[in-house]
Design a protein that fits this description.
about 20% strand, Aldehyde Dehydrogenase, Chain A, domain 1, alpha/beta, 7-stranded mixed sheet, 5-stranded parallel sheet, 22 strands, 14 helices, binds NADP nicotinamide-adenine-dinucleotide phosphate, Aldehyde Dehydrogenase, Chain A, domain 2
Length: about 500
């Protein structure tokens, strides 16, 4: 069995003590083991701060962008092996694994291009210069510079490649060294990606570290110049925010947590129309892609009460033929959940939803081994459906009468809300009503070719959301850099400031 090692302090290190075993969730076969016991995490962070930070800050944005491009190219060359690991260790179908790995490569390339567009400068200008007094001499200018600490990234199990790459791309381009901690159960993909990056010496020493295994005391060593970007459950996010050193040193924290994403069908949409078919396709894709283990997946399917029966019948018909099984088989459309405990949580969650709703679709013929859960469509619900995320292939149909935004906003903050309508008045009212509760709103339209649906996070747009979604924000093109940089207001004589920022007085 392979032993996964951590790459910290410029070296590969295997931990000591009893390891966690990583399984193939479709067959329950052990694949690898990992432990972080015995690794000096305080020293790992200090190495990143003292070696990686200065090396990255000595480069311009364009040079850091070129580093990201070289990582993207190296991962592209390793794509087949990464896909195989996603299938074996993540329970991904090939298409699910591509979604993760190609998403990682695409995001690295997008940030490489942002680096090129920001050019040969080392600091970012934030807005225009401002005349502060009666005379033009008294001048102000906001700038942003990379923080002098380390960016710690703690990732969820469901996107081992994309989660690793999207956070690392933004931080490295901003000029901060990264220590990335993938979720242990699915760490094989991130571990292989790191082997490639280290093997080809693509980054300066200390710029990127990988911790495989439990986080142990890692976060207790974070200080005032460090930042922490966390993706995972709201519960762990809350625990992290409350760490005494995080509070005492005002460590900057970004939390990406769960979300009860809603898809709303407009009352103007006719059954069988292109808009209606698009809506059904997006719901089914989100329920089954990655076995519903996407933070952005549609959980609440909100339809006009007149269309409840049509949508129920049509979704049931579409879910019926979806083959669930070992994703190593090319005919399989949906794999298992990632771990036994994720399935136990999801089953528990379904029970909670069934206190108020009823099952209208589930499959009986699941494989005997592996952590499989059927695609499950529930109908009805009043409370739990707006409060509890079931992280699996589970969605609930909810009828509305009148204004859908009242139901949507009961989710208390989400990553994405999608809307399928051509009624401009309904679109405006719904968008304005739900916007303050979301990080992104997806307006489905059948004329958009190759629409990826609401579940795909694009590097150009922000990802995150208020309230239950963790209150965080990532990506969004160059906006994403702000988290890793300190904004400073310069106030003084205009020629002095202009010289400082490289402008001609
Ligand atoms: P989790 O149990 O909170 O774990 C997430 C990460 O935190 C893992 O790397 C885990 O490490 C680590 N961790 C656990 N306890 C920790 C602690 N006390 N201190 C520091 N790190 C700790 O979440 P999960 O079950 O893996 O992920 C599922 C959840 O993530 C779902 O609710 C989903 O909605 C959410 N999610 C959100 C987004 C988003 O972008 N908003 C994306 C994906 C997933 P170990 O694996 O070693 O335990």
């Amino acid at each position: 069995m392979q032993t996964l090692r951590s790459y910290v302090g410029g070296q590969w290190r295997a931990g000591s003590g009893s390891p966690q075993v990583l399984l193939n969730p479709a067959t329950e076969q052990p694949l690898a083991q990992a432990t972080s016991e015995g690794i000096d995490l305080r020293a790992a962070l200090e190495h990143a701060r003292s070696k990686g930070g200065p090396a990255l800050r000595a480069l311009t944005f364009a040079e850091r962008g070129a580093l990201l491009k070289s990582i993207a190219d190296a991962l592209q060359a390793e794509r087949d092996a990464l896909l195989e690991l996603g299938i074996a260790n993540g329970g991904n179908t090939r298409s699910d694994a591509k979604f993760d790995v190609d998403g990682a490569i695409g995001t690295l390339l997008a940030y490489a291009e942002i680096g090129i567009s920001l050019g040969g400068q080392g600091l970012l200008l934030d807005g225009e210069g401002i005349q502060l007094g009666r005379s033009a001499r008294f001048h102000g200018q906001h700038i942003a510079l990379p923080r002098h600490g380390v960016a710690v990234h703690v990732n969820a199990f469901n996107f081992p490649a994309w989660g690793f790459a999207e956070k690392a791309a933004t931080a490295l381009l901003a000029g901060m060294p990264v220590l990335s901690k993938p979720a242990t159960s699915s760490a094989m993909v991130a571990h292989r990606a790191m082997e490639v990056i280290v093997g080809k010496k693509l980054l300066p020493e200390g710029a990127l570290s990988l911790l495989v295994g439990a986080p142990r005391d890692l976060l207790t060593h974070l200080g005032p110049q460090d930042v922490l970007a966390f993706t995972g459950s709201g519960e762990t996010g809350a625990r992290i925010r409350a760490l005494p050193n995080v509070i005492a040193h005002s460590v900057r924290v970004n939390v990406e947590a769960d979300s009860l994403n809603a898809a709303v069908l407009g009352a103007d949409v006719a059954p069988r129309s292109d808009m209606y078919e698009l809506f059904l396709k997006d719901v089914v894709r989100d329920m089954t892609q990655k076995a519903g283990q996407k933070c952005t997946a549609i959980r609440r399917v909100i339809v006009p009460k007149e269309l409840l029966e049509d949508t129920r019948n049509d979704l049931v018909e579409l879910l019926g033929p979806i083959r669930v099984g070992d994703p190593a088989d090319d005919e399989v459309r949906m794999g298992p959940l990632a771990t036994a405990s994720q399935r136990a949580d999801a089953r528990e969650g379904v029970k909670r939803l069934l206190d108020e709703g009823k099952i209208v679709f589930e499959k009986q013929d699941l494989p005997g081994k592996g952590f499989f859960l059927s695609p499950t469509l529930i109908e009805g619900g009043a409370k739990a459906v707006h409060e509890h995320e079931v992280f699996g292939p589970v969605a609930t149909l909810l009828p509305y009468d009148g204004h859908p935004e009242k139901i949507v906003t009961r989710g208390n903050g989400g990553l994405v809300c999608s809307l399928y309508s051509e009624d401009q008045a309904l679109i405006e009212k719904t968008v304005l009503g739900v916007a303050p509760y979301h990080g992104r709103i997806f307006l489905g339209h059948p004329k958009i070719e190759l629409s990826p649906g609401p579940g795909t996070v694009l590097p150009q747009l922000v990802h995150g959301g208020p309230g239950r979604a963790g209150g965080g924000e990532e990506l969004g093109g160059a906006r994403g850099l702000a988290f890793y940089m300190q904004r400073v207001a310069l106030e003084g004589s205009r020629p002095v400031i202009q010289k400082l920022i490289g402008q001609k007085p």
